[in-house]
Amino acid sequence: MRRTDTAVVLALVFGAASWLAPTNAAAQVPALVPAQVPAQPAGQGAAQEAFTMDRALAIAMQRSRDVVAAKLEIEAAEVDRIAAGLYWNPNFYYNVGNVVVGAGNPQGDQRVDPGPFSQLIQTVGVSEVIDVWAKRSARIKAADLGVEQRRLRVEDAMREIAYAVRSAFSDVVREQLELDLSTTMKSRYDDTVKLSRARVSAGDSSKFEGQKIELEGMKYGNLVIDAQMQLDLSRQGLAQLMGLPAAKDLPGLAVAPPAPRTTLAIEPLVARALQERPDLRAARKGKVFADAMLEAAEREAYPDIALGVAFTHSGFTVSGDNANALGLSVALPLPVFDRNQAGVARSRLEGKRVLNDVARLELIVRHDVTSAARREERAHALLDVYETGGLLSGAEWSLETAEKSFRAGAVSLLELLEAQRTYIETRGQYLRVQDEYRKAKIDVVHAVGREP
What we know:
By secondary structure, the chain is of the alpha+beta class. The protein has a domain at 1-31 and 262-301 and 342-452: Outer membrane efflux proteins (OEP), CATH 1.20.1600. It contains eleven helices and four strands; from the N terminus they run ααααββααααββααα. The chain has helices spanning 6-20, 25-28, 53-63, 65-84, 135-202, 207-242, 266-276, 278-300, 341-388, 391-407, 413-448, and strands spanning 91-97, 121-130, 305-314, 324-331. The longest helix is centred in the middle third of the chain and has 68 residues, at 135-202. The chain is elongated and about 140 Å long.
């Protein structure tokens, strides 16, 4: 075929791709094998458990410092429960009086002036607050609800941690596939470079065209280097979220089986999220907790009644005192000025704030679920276009045809480069759509609170 016919050949090549390519793209597009990625840690063989998203999440839940910090919040709430159940400390007191100053009363008929400490009256006693208003019970009830609310908040924190780990894992998978694509294209283009060198040596091609091919090959080498750097950064970010010291401690290459294609019904998902999302459940529990705190604050306005018992020993029996005597006492503050007005007002304000949070979160949940479901629908439709519409298989077939035609001298270098760019762009867009679909499914799980 003459050079003047190359444009017609290329047109036929790209035009025929849409109807010559099989509808099953996976049967035509070769599977990309991970290449030039960090090696597995020592002692980990091929038979070891695959490094899946679920495994990454399990490791993160065991090692992540954020998970540890979230669980400590529950312990803090349980400490508050202990404090709420404590009784008042009893008051112990000791009084001494009737210290003689100056001349004292004579000791009976002896007409002897007493010394300063000979007629002491000493009292020792204990008093304790009696919880007649059930203040302790109100505090315990509020503290128990506080523990339940804190557990829900920790559950929501774990949901956020899981979302971050899943998203980072998806980034690693995407970077691995993009590195595979760059490595594969560099390997294929290396064959073109070898052919060009042979043609230049044989005098069948100009030195200028050979240099141009060499420069294009350097570009593919740069793409591989850039993909390796992006993959390394993604792996480091995932290792940090999983609580691992470095990316080399990750258990091998990330493996992500194809996500199942499902059709989502938005309204049932919204209803489920409104019932199950932990942040919304925590907000609703916060309203119950605020009501319990208001009840406890109102009870605090009642005066604490303290009962006491005292033992008195008198050294002034000459005056008619009994040497030993018991006494009882009742004490309570008069709630004239401080009736815990600030505490009651603060608890009422907290109740209003929680009600507003519940309404705000319900709107956020509806928006999150709807947006995530719409993104999954869009990514699903785009995947169908690439996979069943023949774009992937057509781009691969066109590139192979252009490469064969270039080797045969039927097409120019410019036409080969155009076919390569088209394939790289198509394949790269497909990888990005795959990542969008994985991320959209992750967003749906995050928005609903559980697997839909």
